[in-house]
Amino acid sequence: MQTTTFAELGLSVKVQAAIQAAGYSIPTPIQQQAIPVAVSGRDVLGIAQTGTGKTAGFVLPMLARLETGRARARMPRSLILAPTRELAAQVAQSFEKYGVNHKLSLALLIGGVSFDDQLRKLDRGVDVLIATPGRLLDHFGRGKILLTGVEILVIDEADRMLDMGFIPDIERICKLLPPARQTLFFSATMPPEIQRLVDTFLRDPARIEVARPATAANTITQLFRYCPSTEDWEKREVLRELIRAENVKNAIIFCNRKRDVAILLKSLQKHGFNAGALHGDMDQMSRTATLDAFREGRIQFLAASDVAARGLDIPDVSHILNFDVPWQSDDYVHRIGRTGRAGKEGRSLTIVTPDDIRQLKDIEKMLGTAVTWIGAAPSSEDLVSAGKRRRGRRQGKRSGGATAAVHGAGHSGARRNGAPSRARNGSRRDQEERAHAAPKAPPNLAGNRPPRRSEAEPAPSGKPSRGERGQQARGERRANGQTQAGRSESKVRQPWEPRPPRPQHYREDRTPSPVGLGDHVPAFLKKAPRPTPR
Question: Measured over all CA atoms, what is the biggest interatomic distance in the chain, rounded to whole angstroms?
Fold first, then answer.
């Protein structure tokens, strides 16, 4: 269905007025196709690349459908599930922007926020509930929320849910909802697990696909810079060169590891760049404050992990810098999708090391074309030897020494990586010098014990040897008519024989008494004996 204005999509007058107040007039392709189907009440399966306006594609029809009705305490009328706190907060901002003409109540259930504030909103009743799966199940487990009144369910960034391990939680939540509901399902890619989820919980959905899955927008200029070294400090130098060469208004710099985000932030601040950080280990207050500062322009560079790669709508991001090549090609598309949004121009620059050639080939295969290089491209030898390199950063140097100490491994970590421990025995050179200095003794074929002396050889002190003493004892037993078997049999009590008396010991008064539990009590705990009457 081809339309040119929001007035032709079946939206209410209040929603259209809010859209005009926000400054939008032409819907995106995903909005043109998804909004009319969602307004009619049918399930929707939306597949579109990031930055195409999927959030407005389900927020606008939900506002139109929720205009009539009333919310009840602890029974939300609609539910939106998002994989991250930032994406959930962004969806809440979209509802506030487009729902200015509606009197709809909203609650945001995310981690890092007090339970009491969220419970007060749920007790008053909410029309729109936006939550992450973990916090929603926490409230449900406490008995603070009922999901039997949900009329509309929205699952946003479903492929990201799969990457973060939320699919079991999604399945559990869907089973708690009433079957007579409308489900809007949005994802950038469709792996088999996501397709199974769609087949299970959606009823005859309208499949809307406006672009080939895992493709980047045409408004993004993608460039790559080759760094022959795998050392992080040299990569940071290359990063600073790219920043100075480009006309950077603001940029998000992505790293694969959270610890690298913190190191990169310190490096940028040390060299005079106005930078902040965003990763999963930060508390919610710090994450929100950093995002607000970046949106408002108070922070120019944002060093981030992949927590900022999905769904975040930060307007006018001029550059995306990949300090690390992502491990998955899909993550590359989501990262660079933070720029070039809503038809605007954007640039992405990726630093590639010899260890990243394999991931680079996956990106080229996904894009369907060769990448464009800034400066010299990797040589043919680098491309050929890419499969022979060990994956990971400086794995060959982690066998011991300073690198193992940095990663908290110590000598035990060195043994885990297949190298001998040097903390106790010193370096290998020291071991070899000690081996040459002290000649080895001839091997002892009889083990570590000295050879036994012959029984015929007399003892050096004139005393009988151990063998001689044993032979004398055996002779004495034979003279007395007692054998080894007889001695063993004499110690075994037969059933008809009486039990021997229990052993006795004598106290200070020399009176015998049987051994009992009282004899094991310390003396200072015993009661004094009663005096004998006279």
Answer: 123
Q: Which residues share a beta bridge with 221? A: 347
- Regarding whether 194 and 81 lie in a shared domain, the answer is yes
For the segment 257-295, what is each residue's pLDDT rounded down to a tens digit? 888 999 999 999 999 999 999 887 888 788 888 988 998
CB 507 within 8 A of CB 513: yes
Statement to judge: residues 149 and 237 lie in one domain: no
Query: What would the two tokens of residue 398 be?
Result: 């982690």
Are 266 and 355 in a shared domain? yes
Sequence-ordered list of residues with C-beta below 8 angstroms from that of 267, at least 6 positions apart, any chain: 236
Q: From CA 318, how far away is CA 254, in angstroms rounded?
A: 14
- Say whether both 96 and 231 belong to one domain: no
Higher pLDDT, 519 or 60: 60
> CA-to-CA distance for 389 and 504, rounded, in angstroms?
79
Q: How far apart are CA 76 and CA 95, in angstroms?
A: 15
Residue 140 shares a structural domain with residue 35: yes
Provide the 3-class DSSP secondary structure of residue 205. Answer: coil
Domains of the chain: total:
2
Query: Would you state the structure tokens that stand for residue 231, as one six-digit string?
Result: 């050392």
**Axis-axis angle for helices 284-295, 85-98 (nearest 10):** 50
Phi, psi of 449 (to 5 degrees): -90, 145
Here the tokens at position 156 are 């946003």
Give the CATH number of the domain where residue 255 resides. Answer: 3.40.50.300
Over pLDDT 70: what percentage of the chain?
A: 68
- What's the CA gap between 38 and 152, in Å, rounded? 10
Q: Cβ distance 45 to 158 under 8 Å?
A: no
pLDDT exceeds 80 at position 38: yes
Residue 515 in this model has a pLDDT that exceeds 60: no
Does residue 49 sit in the same domain as residue 110? yes
| Distance of alpha carbon 12 from alpha carbon 67, whole angstroms | 9
Name the residue among 257, 262, 241, 252 with its Cα closest to residue 299: 252
Residues of the domain holding 135: 6-209
Q: How far apart are CA 519 and CA 526, in angstroms?
A: 10
Say which residue the tokens 């597949």 belong to: 47
